[in-house]
TrEMBL record:
UniProt-listed Pfam families: CoA_trans (PF01144)
Keywords: Transferase
Keyword Transmembrane helix applies: no
A GO molecular-function descriptor: CoA-transferase activity
Coiled coil: none
Protein name from the UniProt record: 3-oxoadipate CoA-transferase alpha subunit
Alphabetized NCBIfam families for the sequence: pcaI_scoA_fam (TIGR02429)
Organism per entry: Alteribacillus persepolensis
Amino acid sequence: MIHKKYENEEHAVADIPNDSTVLVGGFGGSGLPSRLITALKENGATGLTIVSNNIGAVSEGVATLISNQQVKKIICSFPVGPHANELIEYLETGRVELELVPQGTLAERIRAGGAGISAFYTPTAAHTELGEGKESRVFNNREHLLEYAITGDYALIKAHRADRWGNLVYRKAQRNFNPVMATAAQTTIAEVDEIVEVGDMSAEEIISPSVYVHRLVEIASQEERGKVQNG
């Protein structure tokens, strides 16, 4: 088993090319891999398709990539927040394409991608504008829409702790979109507060096995780790 470690976030995202599909974890600011997002902005890759729950409830969110004109398409549930007006302008001028997906459907499309399930039916959004033009079938006298799985070239995720093999433990609300996104990308890059030795974490607390994690970036100083553990 190869130990996985990158010295900094810039190195970890340096090879993300133009026109990549990037899954970005987090729910608002909870579990947001903000350092990796900033590094991707500095990387300068353009034509990105970003899959995320929202575009950025905090300044370090996906909205910074949109403002930097790196995004051609955003697939999300909540295109709202401080940068909503800017996104609307980009949509109206055709600079960014938006695919709006109900939150549960978004999570399931990503989970399906990680599980190798190509598509599935769901009643969510049937008989609404979001369901227009989609294939549908009736199950148990209820209309269901066909939804396709989502996978990514890269996933940028946030976890609390990793061992050097890449097994991940999440802290509280970090366990939102991050675990499913870890399974659905060809290359998963995890921003973590702390990297520990193999065996220092209990097998029962590991949520994302190392087989899904390809790169690790440790971001917290010793003082910051104490704040995380005590706060």
